[in-house]
Amino acid sequence: MFRRAPAAAFLVAGVLAGASALAQTSPAFGPLPASTAPADDMPLADYFGLLLQIAPAAESGARTYVAAVQLRCRHTMGTAELRRAMAEGEGNPTLMGLIRAAHLKDTVTRDRLVAQLPCPLGSTR
Fold it and tell me: Which domain of life is it from (predicted)?
């Protein structure tokens, strides 16, 4: 039983060494270049298209949110701002509510959320 322990330890050490070698990048290629493109480089229509492929309710809710911000707050949202609204924390509560309402086809909740939409800082009503 004890004679197998060194063999098992040797095997584990070999696997770990091989795995760490595979995880390293080649110095011949250097580090990955940093992206110089701004976060808002994707057109909003393309972002909506991607959302539609992933989750149609997310696309519908996001379109409603962007349109509501434009109409109620006179603020044109860009892709980066919409992405932040989706991704920061648990997501913008109004946007998440609109996505849920789109999924449930709940027009009453959608209309209520649009009517109560708080404008982003720097926007006017």
Answer: Bacteria
Q: What is the pTM of this model?
A: 0.67
Q: How far apart are CA 107 and CA 120, in angstroms?
A: 23
Is 31 a member of any domain? Answer: no
53 vs 58: CA distance, rounded Å:
10
Q: Give domain status of residue 88, yes or no.
A: yes
Q: Is residue 71 part of a domain?
A: yes
Non-local (6+) Cβ contacts of 76 within 8 A are: 70
Domain with 70 in it: 44-116
Determine, yes or no, domain membership for 62. Answer: yes
pLDDT band of residue 25 (cuts 50, 70, 90) is low
**Sign (positive or negative) of CA dihedral 17, 18, 22, 25:** positive
Whose tokens are 């991704």? That residue is 87
Tokens of 60: 């519908």
